[in-house]
Amino acid sequence: MFRQNNVVLIGSSVVEQSKSIKHLNKRIINIDYFNDEDLIGENYRNPNHFGFVNDDVISILKKLNLPRDDTLIIVSSDYERDKDYYKLLTSYGEVIGNHYKDILKLQDHKYLSSRLKENNINFPKRYNSNEEIISPALVKNSYLSGGSGVKIYKQNEQLKNNDEYYEQFIEGQVYSIIFISNHNKNYEIIGINKIFSKKTLYTDFCFSGAYSNIDLNKKQIKYLKNMISFFIKEFNLIGINGIDFIISNDIYFLEINPRITQTCFLYDRNFTNGYIAAHIDCVLNKNLPNIKKSKYIRAFENLYAASSSTVDIDLGNFDFVTNIPKLNNFIDVGDPICTINSESNDEKKVKNLLLNNISLIKKELINIEII
Questions:
Q1: C-alpha dihedral over 320, 261, 209, 273, to 10 degrees?
Q2: What is the rounded CA–CA span in Å between residue 132 and residue 75?
Q3: CB of 343 closer than 8 Å to CB of 300
């Protein structure tokens, strides 16, 4: 356990994180974009759509005037780049997660590509110019995660900034593997998820949901362990992190998420005090948690607005709905409305239950066009 009494959670949506530590009797301060109804703790809104650490976040922390040595800060988004917000953040509490200099190295897609190649880690071919492209291809952005900024390449399309790059499109099933590592570069695998995406206003491949506890064969697990070891040793990753990959004819690395990801809550019960407490203990005390193994499958899907709308139904009446918007809250086109959940010890059952739950909520929100 940890002695600090204040825990600040920063991201685009931190509902599940706040729920994970509600039993610890700490002061929970949530700073996020969506400010949903089911947040636990004190809530402050960051107008940045991605929940990036920025002047608004710093202003909130300045007004709160929390004792620095009694405050922990967890960032599950990223940092705006006009200032050194990581350094500013450290003046208000201890940041529990990866150092910003290591995050920046991971966002240098040219450097990362060279290191992946040198370490024999497969990844989709990256093109230096649109003259080299063999369609189908993608335009990706190394500064954004969760599928944000990923779009299908259109003929003669130019890159907008240095974060963007062209990448080969590979058909296959996308997965993520979540792991937790300490300062001694030891780690434990938390779980493997099957990942899904949707086309929204903002991206052609918006992360939309997952199934937990996916089994892969021994050869695949060995390959993924080598990949995890590479990232931990090369980029000093600590705490909970995630890697997205695709299985086609082989395993291909897609993206590294050097922070707590949206799928971590699926394994909250696998930890004695929840995944956020495990993340904190690992970073502060170098302790790897005892992760309870479970074959119980949890699944979720985010519902998105196809047009601007207002939710006039109290979705809190449904126990399988999370990330609940406030009543009569305006939701812009492309934004998530809520999250639908299901769980079972059978993958087929969990899928059918999820589909039934989605169908029920769509009937309730009949006046809203839903993706």
A1: -30
A2: 38
A3: no
* Consecutive 10-residue averages of pLDDT for the chain (371 residues): 95 97 97 96 96 98 98 97 97 98 96 97 93 92 81 90 93 97 97 94 89 97 98 98 97 97 97 98 96 93 92 94 94 93 94 97 90 87
Q: 286: alpha, beta or left, given left = phi > 0 and alpha = psi -120 to 50?
A: left
Q: Specify the residue for token string 């999370």.
A: 322
* Contact by Cβ (8 Å): 109, 126: yes
CA distance 135 to 121: 23
- One-letter amino acid identity for 348? K
**The 42-45 sheet, strands edge to edge:** 42-45, 27-32, 6-11, 71-75, 94-95
Residues 6 or more apart from 124 whose CB is under 8 A from it? 167, 168, 169, 170, 252, 254
Q: What are phi and psi of 312, to 5 degrees?
A: -110, 15
Other C-beta atoms lying within 10 Å of the C-beta of residue 141: 19
Cα separations (Å) of 146 from 46, 209, 242, 273, 287?
19, 10, 11, 26, 28
Q: CA-to-CA distance for 251 and 281, rounded, in angstroms?
A: 32
Tokens of 296: 């119980």
**Burial readout 347-358 (b: 16 or more C-beta within 10 A, e: otherwise):** beebeebbeebb
**If you search the block for the tokens 């190649």, which residue do you land on?**
117
- Cβ atoms within 10 Å, residue 184: 10
Q: CA-to-CA distance for 119 and 13, rounded, in angstroms?
A: 35
The two three-digit tokens of residue 282, written as one number? 């690992």
What pTM does this model have? 0.96
C-alpha span between 330 and 88 (Å, rounded) = 32
**Site of tokens 């949901």:** 209
Number of H helices, E strands in the chain: 8, 19
Nearest-Å Rg of the Cα atoms of the chain is: 20
